[in-house]
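Lab manual, section 2.4: Encoding a predicted structure.

Procedure: take the sequence of the chain (241 residues), apply the prediction step described in section 2.3, and record the output as structure tokens. A sample record is shown.
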Amino acid sequence: MQEQTIIIAFVAIIAIVFLLAFFFSKKAIIKRKLKNSELKRLSSFRSGETARIVGKVEFVDTPLIAPLTGRKCSLYHVLIEQERSTGKSSTWDTLVDEERHCKYVIKDGSKYAYINDTLLKSYIVEDAKYKSGFLNDPTENIESYLNSKGIDTTGFFGFNKTLRCKEGVLEKDEEIAVFGHGEWKAAIELGLPEKYGQVLEITSTGEEAIYLSDDPDTTEENEININSSRKHEVKRSRYRK
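Recorded output:
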């Protein structure tokens, strides 16, 4: 009986640890922040407000080329890890964790927004995943990319290292969600082409960073906003003459 109690307690502790690790992961924090924040259309966003916007990516500069897939994009995030065995256990060590972006705007209807701050927390869906190892060669793109970083894909005896590679990108017309502080400014003032007219500059506040994601969960209107909108509609109809 005592042994069963110990086993149950141990399993419970492991479960709690995994739950906390998931709840406080970078991905979970960013998604939770975006999903729980107020969603505003750019057409109704006023200078000085802080809220979430949703729009489509439009390139301003020449787009980047994602290193693992060759896709044109405004932003890419690449994570490459190597499995290292130590006796009976193994760990995944990070070889590359890189995020790069070029200049782009976010279009919502006929309005545009522009992220103009380096204090940014982003979660980009990793929709390209590769593995390499024994009898499984890495792709040419992966090998070329790692070589450019001074990293070999083979070990001491010429065998492939066990790697897992992930890549996420923001492509043209992809829908993204962004939370931040907004101020309307002339496009030229922000270093953007004059054709964009007045652009909402998105920056961080003194308390919070900008949050960004292309996860579909973050681009949808949440129940809080829906319920809030319905309450306002009820109030307006209640006092309408």
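Check your result against the sample. The chain has one domain: 2-127+167-235.
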